[in-house]
């Protein structure tokens, strides 16, 4: 049918006896003689004043590429603006990311939300390995849901929209919600067999985590972005390397392996060299996750109707990060320079010169005393050992992806250390904002989390003062 969306215009401008649908009819014999290429062209080139979504076009390009149909692929490339073509071509030059998206091609319901104009963010993050992990995890979860019995084409847009961000294996509230969706046929509507629907429901309820989608993939990049800004500065100039490759290229095995359990507290651990490097890399991410509001211009979201919390930039955190990185084995030039700095001495000198601007004596002794006082005020308690992943109330679905909210970040901050990612979640009424953070970063960093058993030996203080 041509001109379906011209209905309103036709009502306004055509006489009632002149309002006809134009129908193109094919005989079976005529249609059977058409080549597959001509059939596709006939279907895809009807007059369609509503533009196709970016995601729909992206998927068509990759499907035709997979089939080796260059003419069909070029037909869809032509629908993109110059900027979007450039963004997509840049993405497709990265083999790992390209394969990650291709793994989701046969799930049509995932592609609608994609905006090709935002793809430049993928490249600026400089963490393709972490992004690929999320894409592969998304494909794994949806394969698990279909368990080889249901065609991937059954995953339509409405099904994805209704299931994304649910955690039915952990949240009793989400479990009830998914059961209602299945009973009302709001998910997998094309699957009519009762036995298959029951099997689908069982598979969905067994998902032990938050159900991801391509939309949540792009939303959660907003959480990665401030962390990558910090890590890129810590790594220094390295245009050709990803964050992971850059830090691993500057890793030197330390004499003892450590894991941060408080802002100034470490614990010795026993593990293999490869696992130690993976854990060290995770610790850099977790530091950035805790402190990005005070280290970048990107801050958490505020609730509607609430006053946005004022967060002062804290340069001392950079010195702390440099010291942590060097102690873990990452000896980049930037980390070594930050490690040599003494922010307490700078603060003490600034304070004394401001408080006593006319004093002409030697500041070294009073500065030294203030620095010693600050040194003695270091943290003495360990981070909480029992994070709460489920509780009454929980976190609503619309707050389970993207940047965190102010109140959630402040509440969860003291738990955001590496051990959080290894804590087994417990089933309960509903998932908390802390579990959401664990899930997001647990997926992006899952390659590094798959490490051997870690044996704690004893805590000690990280030397922060020179």
Automatic annotation (TrEMBL):
It comes from Delitschia confertaspora ATCC 74209. Pfam families: DUF3723. InterPro entries: DUF3723. It comes from the Eukaryota. This is Uncharacterized protein.
């Amino acid at each position: 049918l041509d001109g379906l969306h011209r209905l309103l215009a036709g009502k306004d401008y055509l006489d009632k006896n002149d309002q006809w649908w134009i129908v193109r009819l094919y005989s079976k014999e005529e249609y059977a003689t058409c080549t597959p290429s001509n059939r596709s062209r006939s279907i895809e080139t009807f007059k369609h004043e509503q533009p196709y979504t970016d995601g729909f076009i992206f998927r068509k390009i990759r499907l035709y590429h997979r089939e080796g149909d260059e003419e069909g692929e070029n037909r869809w490339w032509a629908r993109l603006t110059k900027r979007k073509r450039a963004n997509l071509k840049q993405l497709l030059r990265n083999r790992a990311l390209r394969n990650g998206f291709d793994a989701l091609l046969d799930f049509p319901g995932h592609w609608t939300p994609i905006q090709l104009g935002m793809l430049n963010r993928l490249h600026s993050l400089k963490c393709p390995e972490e992004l690929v992990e999320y894409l592969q995890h998304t494909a794994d979860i949806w394969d698990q849901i279909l368990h080889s019995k249901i065609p991937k084409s059954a995953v339509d847009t409405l099904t994805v929209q209704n299931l994304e961000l649910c955690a039915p294996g952990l949240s009793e509230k989400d479990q009830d919600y998914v059961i209602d969706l299945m009973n009302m046929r709001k998910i997998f509507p094309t699957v009519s067999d009762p036995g298959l629907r029951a099997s689908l429901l069982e598979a969905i309820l067994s998902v032990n985590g938050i159900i991801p989608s391509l939309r949540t993939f792009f939303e959660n990049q907003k959480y990665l972005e401030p962390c990558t800004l910090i890590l890129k500065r810590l790594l220094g100039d390295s245009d050709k390397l990803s964050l992971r490759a850059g830090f691993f290229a500057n890793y030197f095995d330390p004499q003892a392996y450590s894991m941060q359990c408080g802002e100034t507290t470490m614990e010795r651990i026993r593990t293999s060299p490869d696992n130690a490097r993976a854990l060290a890399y995770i610790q850099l991410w977790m530091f950035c996750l805790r402190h990005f509001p005070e280290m970048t211009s990107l801050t958490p979201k505020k609730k509607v109707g609430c006053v946005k919390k004022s967060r002062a930039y804290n340069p001392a955190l950079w010195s702390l990060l440099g010291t942590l990185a060097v102690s873990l084995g990452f000896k980049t030039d930037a980390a070594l320079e930050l490690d040599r700095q003494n922010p307490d001495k700078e603060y003490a000198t600034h304070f004394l010169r401001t408080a006593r601007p006319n004093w002409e004596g030697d500041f070294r002794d009073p500065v030294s005393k203030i620095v010693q006082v600050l040194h003695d005020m270091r943290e003495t308690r360990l981070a909480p050992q029992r994070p709460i992943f489920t509780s009454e109330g929980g976190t609503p679905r619309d707050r389970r992806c993207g940047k965190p909210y102010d109140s959630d970040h402040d509440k969860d901050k003291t738990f955001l250390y590496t051990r959080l990612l290894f804590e087994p979640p417990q089933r309960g009424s509903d998932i908390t904002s802390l579990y959401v953070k664990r899930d997001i970063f647990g997926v992006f960093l899952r390659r590094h989390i798959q490490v051997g058993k870690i044996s704690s030996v004893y805590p000690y203080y990280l030397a922060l003062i020179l």
